[in-house]
Amino acid sequence: MVRAAPSSRFFFEIGPLKFEVVEYNGSLPTLVLNPYSWTKASNIILVDSPVGTSFSYSRNNRDVRTTDFKQVCHLHQFLQKGGGHTATEYKPPDRVFCNV
């Protein structure tokens, strides 16, 4: 199976739901609770990176042409801004784990 986006990791590996594996019968897959979900104990932010991959986007085409250094700067800036969260009680995480 090809995993092209963090969202697929969420559904196939760590998320609160998983697809019930059955032999194909022509119907849509069924979602069931994942008893081993990481989201039971942690808050997780999955980021499509670098800009232009998967579901990420930019209003500026220059952002798509990137280097490792620019990519890390974009991720750092995202985390410093609270990952898109605007609540005043939010603070940036104490620890950040990266899976590249």
From TrEMBL:
Q: Which GO terms describe its biological process?
A: proteolysis; secondary metabolic process
Pfam families (alphabetical) = Peptidase_S10 (PF00450)
Q: What InterPro entries does the database record attribute to this sequence?
A: AB_hydrolase_fold (IPR029058), Peptidase_S10 (IPR001563)
Q: Which domain of life is it from?
A: Eukaryota
Any one GO MF annotation of this record: serine-type carboxypeptidase activity
The Swiss-Prot or TrEMBL record describes its family as follows: Belongs to the peptidase S10 family.
Which PANTHER family did the record assign? SERINE CARBOXYPEPTIDASE-LIKE 19 (PTHR11802:SF29), SERINE PROTEASE FAMILY S10 SERINE CARBOXYPEPTIDASE (PTHR11802)
Report the protein name in the record. Answer: Uncharacterized protein
Q: What is the organism field in this record?
A: Hibiscus syriacus (Rose of Sharon)
Task: Recall the taxonomic lineage recorded for the source organism.
Answer: Eukaryota, Viridiplantae, Streptophyta, Embryophyta, Tracheophyta
